[in-house]
Design a protein that fits this description.
The chain folds into two domains: about 45 residues; about 90 residues, no CATH class. The chain is mainly α. The relative contact order is 0.10. It contains six helices and two strands. About 60% of the residues lie in helices and about 5% in strands. The radius of gyration is 30 Å and the shape is rod-shaped.
Length: about 150
């Protein structure tokens, strides 16, 4: 009787294995059938590129936002241009060795990778944050620039 149970267990294992093999073969056939007919004409994966996200010119956006949201005219905009030119050369992908990121060089040493990545994904996010930071901490871009000239940071 034990012999029959062992044989049934072995037969069941073989049956399950053959089902898995057939399922794999069928799935492979289906995937192959959905492949392009003329693979030579299909572009290789490495040549497919996502379009870069288009942003308005960061300086233009910053100056318009500074004027419309904070009332900062040409004098303040000039200070802002100099300040962020010194900090990151208006490069939204800038990163300093001291964990400062983006156009305004926001210090993010104690932030998570996700928070840093979210901040770095758009110059507009950085500019909005930076303008608010200047307003709250210094009052205006020229006051932030005055502080920068004395301390070489703001």
């Amino acid at each position: 009787m034990e012999m029959k149970n062992d044989q049934k267990t072995t037969q069941n294992a073989r049956y399950k294995k053959s089902i898995r093999i057939w399922a794999t073969l069928i799935l492979t056939a289906l995937m192959t059938a959905n492949a392009p007919i003329n693979a030579a004409k299909a572009p290789p994966i490495r040549e497919i590129k996502l379009k870069p996200q288009e942003f308005p010119d960061p300086k233009t956006y910053a100056y318009k936002t500074a004027l419309n949201k904070y009332g900062w005219g040409k004098v303040q905009q000039k200070c802002l241009g100099i300040l962020w030119g010194k900090e990151a050369a208006w490069n939204y992908t800038a990163k300093s060795p001291t964990d400062d990121y983006g156009i305004p060089q926001r210090h993010m040493r104690h932030k998570t990778i996700k928070q840093i990545n979210d901040f770095m994904e758009s110059p507009l996010i950085q500019i909005d944050w930076g303008l608010n930071y200047i307003k709250v901490r210094y009052g205006s871009p020229c006051q932030a620039w005055d502080f920068w000239e004395k301390n070489r940071w703001y």
